[in-house]
C-alpha cells in the first residue's frame, strides 16, 4: 500500500499549472467574472451612497456590500477551482488512468485543494486591488478577521467540491452543471448581502446551519461595529469540520459505487 507522497501531489499540481499556462483564455476568464461582479456591485453601492446624500449608514452598508461581493467570490471560486481541475481529468478522459496509477485518493484530493487555492489567488487577488483603486475598499485591511473568513469559506467550498466530484464520478458529465450552479443555492440562505434577521424566522434556522452565514455575519460585525466575532468563526469552523468529513465519506462511497458500476471508463454524457 502506498504512503502519502507530497511528490505526487506536487506533480499533479504541476500538471494542472501547465494546463493553465498553456491557455491564456482560461487565465483571462478566471479574472473576468470576479472583476465584472465587483465593478457592477461596486458602482451600485456608489449610486446608493450618492442617492442617500452620503449618510453614514449608507456608507457602512456600501462597505459591507462590496466586502460581501469579494468574500462571495472567494467562496465560489474556491469551489469551482476544486471541481474544474477534476473536470479537466474527465474532459481529457484521463480519470481512469489516474485511478489505476500509484496516486492515492488522498493525494488526488489534496492536489485538487491546492489547485483550488492557486486558481482562487489568480482570480480574486487582482480584483481586491481593483476594489482599492476604484472604491477605496481594502479587503486586506481586515487582517486576522480575513484569515478567519478565508479558512471557513475554503473548507466549506472544498466540501461542496468533494460532493460535486463524487456526483461526477457516479453519474458522469451529466452532473457537470453542478460544478457551476450548486454554490448559488447557498447564496440566498447564506445571507451574503443582507443580515440573517431579514429572513423569515423559520428560514433563519436553515441559514444558521450553513457555515458561510457565520462569515458574512462576521464581516458585517467587523465593518459596522469594528468587532471580530471569534465566536462566529469558531462555530462556522466546527460545522465545516463536520461537513468536510461527511463530504470525504460521500466521495469515497460514490467512488466505490462508480467502481462497482464500471462507470469510470464511461465518463461521458
From TrEMBL:
<protein>
    <recommendedName>
        <fullName>Transport permease protein</fullName>
    </recommendedName>
</protein>
<dbReference type="InterPro" id="IPR013525">
    <property type="entry name" value="ABC2_TM"/>
</dbReference>
<feature type="transmembrane region" description="Helical">
    <location>
        <begin position="232"/>
        <end position="256"/>
    </location>
</feature>
<feature type="domain" description="ABC transmembrane type-2">
    <location>
        <begin position="25"/>
        <end position="254"/>
    </location>
</feature>
<dbReference type="InterPro" id="IPR047817">
    <property type="entry name" value="ABC2_TM_bact-type"/>
</dbReference>
<feature type="transmembrane region" description="Helical">
    <location>
        <begin position="117"/>
        <end position="140"/>
    </location>
</feature>
<keyword id="KW-0813">Transport</keyword>
<comment type="similarity">
    <text>Belongs to the ABC-2 integral membrane protein family.</text>
</comment>
<dbReference type="GO" id="GO:0005886">
    <property type="term" value="C:plasma membrane"/>
</dbReference>
<feature type="transmembrane region" description="Helical">
    <location>
        <begin position="181"/>
        <end position="203"/>
    </location>
</feature>
<dbReference type="GO" id="GO:0140359">
    <property type="term" value="F:ABC-type transporter activity"/>
</dbReference>
<dbReference type="Pfam" id="PF01061">
    <property type="entry name" value="ABC2_membrane"/>
</dbReference>
<keyword id="KW-0472">Membrane</keyword>
<keyword id="KW-1003">Cell membrane</keyword>
<feature type="transmembrane region" description="Helical">
    <location>
        <begin position="146"/>
        <end position="169"/>
    </location>
</feature>
<keyword id="KW-0812">Transmembrane</keyword>
<keyword id="KW-1133">Transmembrane helix</keyword>
<dbReference type="InterPro" id="IPR052902">
    <property type="entry name" value="ABC-2_transporter"/>
</dbReference>
Amino acid at each position: 500500500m502506498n504512503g502519502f507522497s507530497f511528490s505526487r501531489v506536487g506533480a499533479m499540481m504541476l500538471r494542472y499549472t501547465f494546463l493553465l499556462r498553456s491557455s491564456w483564455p482560461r487565465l483571462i476568464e478566471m479574472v473576468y467574472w470576479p472583476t465584472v461582479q465587483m465593478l457592477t456591485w461596486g458602482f451600485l453601492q456608489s449610486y446608493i451612497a450618492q442617492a442617500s446624500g452620503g449618510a453614514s449608514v449608507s456608507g457602512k452598508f456600501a462597505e459591507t456590500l462590496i466586502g460581501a461581493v469579494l468574500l462571495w467570490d472567494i467562496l465560489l471560486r474556491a469551489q469551482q477551482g476544486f471541481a474544474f481541475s477534476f473536470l479537466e481529468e474527465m474532459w481529457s478522459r484521463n480519470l481512469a488512468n489516474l485511478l489505476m496509477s500509484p496516486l492515492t485518493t488522498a493525494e488526488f484530493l489534496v492536489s485538487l485543494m491546492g489547485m483550488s487555492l492557486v486558481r482562487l489567488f489568480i482570480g480574486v487577488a487582482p480584483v481586491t486591488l481593483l476594489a482599492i483603486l476604484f472604491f477605496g475598499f481594502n479587503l486586506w485591511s481586515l487582517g486576522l478577521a480575513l484569515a478567519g473568513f478565508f479558512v471557513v469559506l475554503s473548507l466549506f467550498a472544498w466540501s461542496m467540491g468533494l460532493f460535486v466530484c463524487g456526483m461526477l464520478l457516479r453519474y458522469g458529465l451529466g452532473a457537470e452543471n453542478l460544478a457551476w450552479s450548486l454554490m448559488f443555492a447557498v447564496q440566498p440562505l447564506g445571507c451574503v448581502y443582507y443580515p440573517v434577521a431579514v429572513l423569515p424566522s423559520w428560514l433563519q434556522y436553515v441559514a444558521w446551519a450553513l457555515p458561510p452565514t457565520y462569515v458574512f455575519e462576521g464581516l458585517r460585525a467587523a465593518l459596522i461595529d469594528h468587532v471580530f466575532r471569534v465566536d462566529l468563526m469558531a462555530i462556522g469552523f466546527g460545522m465545516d469540520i463536520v461537513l468536510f468529513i461527511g463530504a470525504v465519506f460521500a466521495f469515497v462511497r460514490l467512488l466505490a459505487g462508480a467502481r462497482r458500476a464500471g462507470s469510470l471508463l464511461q465518463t461521458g454524457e
